[in-house]
């Protein structure tokens, strides 16, 4: 009789070939290469927003109390560039932490995953992390928006990802009971909500 793991993914029945109890032949968490690709794409999207971010940082500097005290245009440009550099560095750091946390959640809680090859696959945590970051920064770059958090559509999009993403893995958790289904959505919503801080 098929048993369930302590996570959220059914265990395949013993094939009679001496497999150890509790061990499965399923792939591990999302391939590290896919995580690196997702991070690289998102960072590239962030960097493509530099022109819009530059204007935003410059406008905020001009609106601050320091605007009248800085008469040298060279110093003003230097201050803008330093502020922009710090903003990009902080964003990259937060993205790295967010993707790392998503990988941990996927490995320990959202254990369902879809196979893309014999030993490759991607999990729910990966899908949520990618959809909540890369398209957002890419759209901001295309539309010339300095911050997506200034529009309500951004929050509606993140909420939609939290609701729809688990449905892509429905065959893995549909038979696990109401409690574990609620656990899936709770962690999916929490992970998507955490992306708002990135």
Secondary-structure-based class equals mainly alpha
The radius of gyration computed from the alpha-carbon positions, rounded to a whole number of angstroms, is 22 Å
Mean pLDDT: 80
**Count of helical stretches:** 8
Largest sheet: 2 strands, antiparallel
What does this protein look like?
The chain is mostly helical. The chain is built from 8 helices and 2 strands; from the N terminus they run αααββααααα. A two-stranded antiparallel sheet has the order 1-2. α2 (50-63) packs across α3.
List keywords for this structure.
198 residues; mainly alpha; single chain; elongated; 60% helix; 2 strands; 8 helices; two-stranded antiparallel ribbon
Give the topology, please.
Elements: H1 32-47, H2 50-63, H3 73-108, E1 113-115, E2 121-123, H4 124-131, H5 134-143, H6 152-164, H7 170-173, H8 178-194
Antiparallel strand pairs: 1-2
Quick overview of this protein structure:
With 198 residues, the chain is mainly alpha-helical. It contains eight helices and two strands, in the order αααββααααα.
